Amino acid sequence: MAIREDQEAWEGQYLSPFASLSKNTKGRDMPEPPCDIRTVYQRDRDRILHCKAFRRLKHKTQVFLAPEGDHYRTRLTHTLEVAQIARTISRALRMNEDLTEAIALGHDLGHTPFGHSGERILDELCPDGFSHSMQSVRVVEVLEKNGKGLNLTKEVRDGILNHRTSGSPSTLEGCIVRFSDKIAYINHDIDDAIRGKIFKETDIPKEYTSVLGHSVRQRLNVMIHDIIGSSTGRPAISMSPGMEETIQGLRAWLFTHMYLNEVPKAEEGKAQQLVAALYWYYLDHPHELPEEYRMLMERQGEKKERVACDYIAGMSDSYAISKFEELFVPKAWKI
Fold first, then answer.
1. DSSP H or E stretch at residue 319
2. CA–CA dist 153, 249 (Å, integer)
3. Taking Cα atoms as reference points, which of 263, 116, 104, 246 lies closest to residue 180?
4. Which of 87, 145, 216, 239 could form a disulfide with 243 if both were Cys (CB 3.0 to 4.6 A apart)?
5. d(CA 7, CA 23)
6. Alpha-carbon distance 213 to 221, whole Å?
């Protein structure tokens, strides 16, 4: 069968001259025979979808810690919304949609339990620091498959590493994910805040709604159209200057009225104390780490501080809470 070769030929004929073609990949750290059906980026996407770290995202906080209700975003639903937005933009610009999707699905694999509050406390505690973007790369390079990693292509790993606002992806597909991440979280965080009665739609300043619209649907439509219109036929992914300024202003407003609001912040201190307690416990008792993490220290010479962070960062919110209860909460004595 020549299915993969046909897809690679199609990419060369149809995709933008600025797109990343599968046949031109910089490859993997460990060379592998090509798949007869899928391109390299399709294989990367599938590996991410089937890995354990991806499944754990469904029980990790996005903004609200342990919200009561089924409709608040989790880290998994955030990831899927980023992927959808990124694929829409990528398809419209005739970029490599498979590479875009793989980066989007993998960009938050290394996120901690309890959202950015968990990330901040691990960054304070770990001597080498901690960032979820670097941890996401560590997940796919080292931690998955019992220390073997997923052996993803360099382009996918680069996009995952550089998805944050301060990042500088080497591919336009990575740039699309970088913008899509911001578009997704601004809009779904507004939606969750309104659902949580932190503010109302009418509370959003008119200087932003007059440009972006008065609903999540309108704002997504405006932002996505702006990126497509500003980037078509150009070797760069960008927004129009006025749009970028408006979004930055809205994001700053959200920090004041939502991210630093007492409602989502109420349990943050407790969550950070919990993470810190687990960290210090596993530094004192590294032999109690699961076998695959102990092997990182014994066979690969990893520092126990790094491996403790690996284990805790991989926990879901509920698992971190249950481990804390197991280790620190007294239990009733039974005969």
1. helix 317-328
2. 36
3. 104
4. 239
5. 10
6. 9
Distance CA 227, CA 239 (A): 5
Phi, psi (rounded to 5 degrees) for 61: -65, 140
| Nearest C-alpha neighbor of 177 from the set 81, 248, 272, 33 | 81
* Structure-token pair, residue 262: 């007492």
Question: Is 28 in contact with 35 (CB distance < 8 Å)?
Answer: no
3-state secondary structure of 61: strand
Q: What is the pLDDT along the chain (335 residues), one digit of tens a residue?
A: 689 999 999 999 999 999 999 999 999 999 999 999 999 999 999 999 999 999 999 999 877 666 666 778 899 999 999 999 999 999 999 999 999 999 999 999 999 999 989 999 999 999 999 999 999 999 999 999 988 999 999 999 999 999 988 889 999 999 999 999 999 999 999 999 998 889 999 999 999 999 999 999 999 999 999 999 999 999 999 999 999 999 999 999 998 888 777 766 678 889 999 999 999 999 999 999 999 999 999 989 999 999 999 999 999 999 999 999 999 999 877 66
Phi/psi-derived region of residue 160, left when phi > 0, alpha when psi is between -120 and 50, beta in every other case: alpha
The reply to whether the predicted model has a pTM over 0.90 is yes
The Cα 112–Cα 310 span in angstroms is 9
Of 95, 293, 100, nearest in space to 178 by CA: 100
Residue 6: CB atoms within 10 A of its CB come to: 10
Query: Would you say 90 and 114 are in contact if contact means Cβ atoms under 8 Å apart?
Result: no
C-alpha to C-alpha distance for 86 and 68, rounded to whole angstroms: 29
The answer for residues whose C-beta is within 8 angstroms of residue 12's C-beta and 6 or more apart is 21, 23
d(CA 300, CA 304): 11
Nearest to 57 by CA among 82, 86, 84: 82
Which DSSP string do the residues of 170-198 spell out, in sequence order? SSHHHHHHHHHHHHHHHHHHHHHHHHTTS
